[in-house]
Amino acid sequence: MAEPGYDQQDEGYSQFVVLHQAALNSSGVPPVYWKSLHRKLEGEIFDAGEWFGIMQVEEMEEEDEDTIEIEREQKKKANPGNDIFLIDHAWTYRVEHARRQLMEVPGLLHRMANLMGMEFHGEVPDEGVVEDVLTEMWKYNQTYQLSQGVAYHV
To answer: Which GO terms describe its cellular component (predicted)?
Structure first.
């Protein structure tokens, strides 16, 4: 029997820690953030935009690389233990599966076309739009390394 004051939320958090502790430790996430991370993942809380903005600054000279700047909203007071944020991304894929996913995953082609400023209306995937997305997506992609292979995300 559970102790007084112990509820399902505590049990859910305990299970979260059991399942993810190794990954959290290896990623360098301090334990002070784990409860907040669990709450945000469980509730799908994407509140980063309430606390800061991320913008890409294009350099005027061709030789310089673009930079990313983060601007924090000064009105918000820091809240230790809660200052961890989920950042959503549009699509993670492996190159060899990208075309098939664009054709088969409902809504994916429409979302990617819209993100890239392309006109696409309709429900049926259009091979021409798929080709355009596959050509243009490299302007938006970021990469990360998995334990086996490389994945890209937009």
So the answer is: cytoplasm
